[in-house]
Amino acid sequence: MINGRTRLHVVANGTMTGQRYIDEALLPHVRLFRGAVGDKFVFMDDNATCHRTLAVQDCLDSEGIQRLVWPARSPDLNPIENVWDALGRQVAGRNYPPTNKNTLIRALTEEWDKLPQQLLDNVALSMVRRVECCITLHGGHIPY
Known about the structure:
Layout: H1 18-37, E1 42-43, H2 54-62, E2 66-67, H3 80-92, H4 101-114, H5 117-125, H6 127-137
Parallel strand pairs: 1-2
Helix pairs in contact: 1-2, 3-4
C-alpha cells in the first residue's frame, strides 16, 4: 500500500487449500486489514485455485469483503507480481543464499522489510492503469 506495508506472512507447510486460505490468511489478516481500511477496501488476490473455492467466496461475502475480479491467467495485471520479482531478486542476491526452509523464510522476511517503500508506492499507484486495462478487457464495465 502507499506509505506502508504489512508484515510478510509466510505459509510454508503443506498444500494451500481453500480452508487453509480462509483460516491462515483471510480471517486473521485480510479481515482485520479490511476493518482498518473501511468500506472502500477492495481485496485483490490472484486466480489460484485455493482462492476460488465456494468456501472462500462465502467467507468473503460473510465478512463484507469485496473482491476485485481479474481475468484468469493474467499475472501482468497483478501488481504483486512485480513485488515478488523484486523480493526474489533480493533473496537470490544475498551473500549467503538460503539453504533450507528456515533460512529461506528468514531471508524473505528480512528482504521484505528492506524493499524500498517507493517500489511499493509505485506498484500501488500503477493500479489505476491496471484497472483501466481490466475495464477495457471487460468491454468497458468495471469488473467488480
